[in-house]
Amino acid sequence: MTNITKYWLLLESMHFATINDTKEHGDAQYLKESSLANDMQRLSHNVREFRKYIKLPMKDLVRQLLEDLNLKHMMGEAVELGQEGDLATLYSFYGIYMIKEIANNVNFISNATEDLVAERHKCLFIACIQDIAQFSLQQHLHPNFYKGRPVLFSRPHDKKTSFKNLEIYVGGFTHVLFIKPLHIGKSLDEPILQYMAGIFSLLMACEDKEYVMADQEIINKTACLQRVWLSLPKSLYFRNLMLMKNNNILSSSGQKILQRQLLIRLWSPGGFNALVFALAECKKEEHSLEELISRLVAQPAYSAKAQKSLIGQILNFSRACVDNQELLQSMGVGLLSLRRLYDLNDENKTFVEGWLQSQLHILIQPDCEKDFTVMDWCNFQHLISLLFHLFCTSTVECLPSNLLTSYLNLILNIFYHVQQHNNTQLLQGHLKALILKCLHNQNAKDLHNIIEAFALQRTDFKEWVALHDCICFDENPLNSQELRIILTSEGPHLWDPLPALVMILKSSTFNLLSFNIFLILFRLLPKLIKEDEEEKKISENMELLQPEDLHQRILREVNTTYARRLHIIKALESLVQHQPMKCMINENSNELLRCLADILINFSELNKHLSEINESTLMIALILVREIMQISTTRTDDFQTVLSKPLHNLYENIDQQSLKYQILSVLHLLQGRNDLNVRYDPLKDQFEEARDLVEAKEPYLQVEGIEKLIKLINCRDTYTVSNAHAIAAMALNTLKSPESYTFLNCVRLFTALVHIMEFEILDLLGDEYVADSSTLDYRLVVGEVILKIGRELGPLCYKYKTILLNCFMTGCRSQLGEFRLSAFSNLAQLCRILSYQVYQYFQELLQLIDCELTSGKYLPAKRAAVMVLSDLLEGMDNLFDYEEMLLPIYRLLKCLAYSKQSDEQIRIHATNGLKNLSEKCTKLVESITASCLEKEIKILGVKDSYKRDLKNHILEMN
């Protein structure tokens, strides 16, 4: 057995060029730097020390080395190699022999007590390896390694390469460099670089016929490189490889060998990661790391298998960067490389598409059972974050967003579910970015098709994939900071994509995209109108349906026709209220005008008789055309040629006078737009003056403008009547004024407007009254306006009894006590006007009053509810017409009037109601007794003629 102790003593006696700091290695005694005059004196000293401890002649030492290193093919040259040479050669052979003996006889890996190595001996051994590598490996590399700029390796000018010696040196270091405990920090990085350069030098010399090696030896040297790749850090391998490859003076064979080795390692598992980290350590400032690696990775000459391997590695690297925030700064390298690989050929594109589908497949077709988790929440967050970085972090580096087109519905559905929960702001931001990036990069035609598919909820669009119907996002009961994704057994979840899309658009800075989507949705309205008219024609020609068929047909029409239109209108309403959208409309008024022109052309192709909804849509389109043409500063000659014919057709085919007013106004504006200096027509000066006053901030100016508008309306001014919808919008806005004098005059304006557009005004006010989003004060004022209009119309408001009664009855169900009080008070006065028309609503009315009296907690609302019955009796003319209603009313009022538990005001209202009923009964009896009684004998069936049994009321007109 070899005596290792003598080698430790030998190491302690030797002088090395550099050693590690003593503070880092305890109290070991090291020389900090050689005190010898030069390296030759140091080498001479070390050789003498070697000969003291190693009692072998040089020839025998070389022969022993060849046997131990299994270099039998060189045994015939042992005598030649063993001849005394220069000090560097002697030092190298003795050093190789010593480190080989230490490596073979010392177990550095073992933790056993008898195997432990002193720390100072280990450090001396490392210093010896470094020093020997400088004189053995580095001075016998291929001559091309010492040329070029920059020079990586150096040696004396008179030194020549001996490939035979180099082969021995490489074999000796193979025994040492793979001992992991010796790799302290970067202590052996330089010897490993020299070791790899030595192997490549032998391979290059063999390739260039400068040195002869058997095939088995070539295989052995290549295996040594493989061992370096597997045993040592891969980034170190790539670093060394790139440092050697950076030498442009290498021969073509050398470049070829290094390039082949680089590609082999790059295509191996973990190769891309190692390349990134290696180049990140040694890159130069003048070269972009992203460009350097992407050019190296994305080359068309690589095989298809290699390219797919690289794509898979980059995707895994990107996922690791998302999971580890410290690596996130390196993600740009992978993104640019992935994009360039993707653009190389169709096979790579198909591979990436397949990867994307495999990632999202679990959300499309989950393979779990009902009420079980589909996907871990952390994995889901990492997936969305990965997609965000792959598609949205850059324009050049990222994957093309058209890959997400088929998954837009799925991503939007996920956003719809996620935005309903807290602590998901980051996830929402990533989903928004994916959706906006994909929509923003679509051309006009594709964007139109996508938005149409969203609006009409089409499922057959471009291989459209959607989130599984039964997937549900809800709170995780085990962790309040997370959600869980489960496959619920409750059935499919219905959702509407447009509100989610509008929410994303309004929270983004993609104003042009929002404007384009607004125009697309606007253009869908005439398409729906045409479909509605066709459906109407078909339904008119259909035979009578069975009740089951009729039920299904009604459901289908509600879910398709009306629901789709309602969703589009609500989306348009939400977008147009967005301030950036208003600016975009002002800047691009011609685009909106072209859209409106298309709508008017579609209307001109419809029949003469329009539905009420289409009348309103046409009215809005005409008003918008006029308003936009007034504010537009560009010429509209092209619109005159486009719109003149459809407008004339509309004028001839419709009967509504208000629509004709609007058409004439637009035609007049089209004819007078040739001169851009004429901003206003003298015929509309009075209206515009009044409009400017109403839109002023000062209350007294607003009141003055309202007075002028009322006068113009009463005079039936043509231009004012054609702008009735604009006046209604101004009046609604002014109604919110805190000044009582302003909104009271605004009430008068509504009562004037109702004479020229009754249904529209009442329908508009009814919607405002029941809207929970409005403030209480505003809704109370709207209720007062509705009541004033009812008084203004008087008994003729029976035509709108459905709107009026339903409006206030809805208010009676409000949770706000003050609002219920107002609703019951208004309902009481309305019942006095519409007493005869309340008959079919009586049961619901009585139920509302009973509910308020029994469960209501706001006393004034209870009093108002009783007052409804009192005013209802007050409005009755002929009691015989209300005989079915009188008994329940009488019983309720009598109970309230004589109950000691009732409030005093409630008893007073009930007593007044009974008093009114008593007086009307007395008058009825007196009228019966006062009339003369005549006896009439009639023979039934003889000259009998049918006579309709008419109610004795002037308003019974049905």
Automatic annotation (TrEMBL):
Highest taxon, organism lineage: Eukaryota
InterPro entries attached to this UniProt entry: ARM-like, ARM-type_fold, Rtp1_C1, TANGO6/Rtp1
Record-level GO BP terms: protein secretion
Record-stated family: Belongs to the Tango6 family.
Lineage: Eukaryota, Metazoa, Ecdysozoa, Arthropoda, Hexapoda
Pfam families with a match to the protein in the record: RTP1_C1
Domain RNA polymerase II assembly factor Rtp1 C-terminal: 688-795
Species this chain originates from: Glossina morsitans morsitans
Record protein name field: RNA polymerase II assembly factor Rtp1 C-terminal domain-containing protein
